[in-house]
Amino acid sequence: MKEKPILRKAEEFLQLFKKGEEFTKGLLQENERLRYRVAELEEALSQSENKTRLQHYEQHIKMLEEEIQSLKQRYRKVEEENRDFAKKYIEVEEENNNLANLYVASYQLHSTLDYEEVLRIVLEIIINLIGADRFAIMLIDEKSNDLTAVAAEGLDTGALPKIKIGEGIIGRVAKEGEGYFPDELVHTDNIDLQKPMVCIPLKIKEHVIGVIAIYSFLIQKKEFSNVDYELFNLLAGHAATAIFSSRLYTQSERKLSTIQGFLELLKDRK
Question: How far is Cα 270 from Cα 265, in angstroms, rounded to an integer?
């Protein structure tokens, strides 16, 4: 009779132990499930952080690329401006050099009253500053009123025909006082003495005393620039003044010498 309570207690203990075991297993399983869930959450969080970081990096890269493009555009703009400035600087430097050369040439022109020396200086100026190859200086003959060659480069002065005022390109330039220029510069070996490539009037104010007829240019000259046209006009004025002054001086010197000769002759007869 006493053993039954003991057995009952033992069974109750075993059942209690089993329940504790089952509860422990349940806790372990729940703990494992929670740990797995924590791992999933940690991985998801890590992926989310990586995604956020990736988006941040992508935005930063995009911003840097836009900044690089902006810098490239600014660089190209500055480069173009530098090229423009360099081109303008070269043009200004070339114009300054030409004007300086013209100043020196004009000084040489007006430094002498010797007619032949003035013509030689004019020839040198046309060659060095204008780049002409074959050309002639033609003056109006006061007696015949024709244009006659008094100096030339690359041409025989004696072979150049006399031109009547108003006839052809040369005569028209002498009559109207306006320069003749082609639309484009074309190099050729064949020339027509009646048809120069460029014809510039030699003018003192509105009075034309002759022309500069240019038939060809040096091969390295490809086109006319604005500076060339300025040189044409300035040279025509300076050359005209120098030629006119030296011719008058030479004529007056000859007349003076003639008068002095007559006077000496009269003295000798007395």
Answer: 9
pTM (two decimals) = 0.62
User: Which of 133, 159, 130 is closest to 233 using CA atoms?
Assistant: 130
Across the strands, what pairs with 202? 210
Question: Distance (Å, rounded) from C-alpha 152 to C-alpha 112?
Answer: 20
3-state secondary structure the chain: CCHHHHHHHHHHHHHHHHHHHHHHHHHHHHHHHHHHHHHHHHHHHHHHHHHHHHHHHHHHHHHHHHHHHHHHHHHHHHHHHHHHHHHHHHHHHHHHHHHHHHHHHHHHHCCCCCHHHHHHHHHHHHHHHHCEEEEEEEEECCCCCEEEEEEEECCCHHHCCCEECCCHHHHHHHHHCCCECCCCCCCCCCCECCECCEEEEEEECCEEEEEEEEEEECCCCCCCCHHHHHHHHHHHHHHHHHHHHHHHHHHHHHHHHHHHHHHHHHHHHC
pLDDT tens-digit readout, 11-62: 776 777 677 777 777 777 877 877 777 777 777 777 777 777 777 878 888 8
Do 179 and 198 meet the contact criterion of CB atoms below 8 Å apart? yes
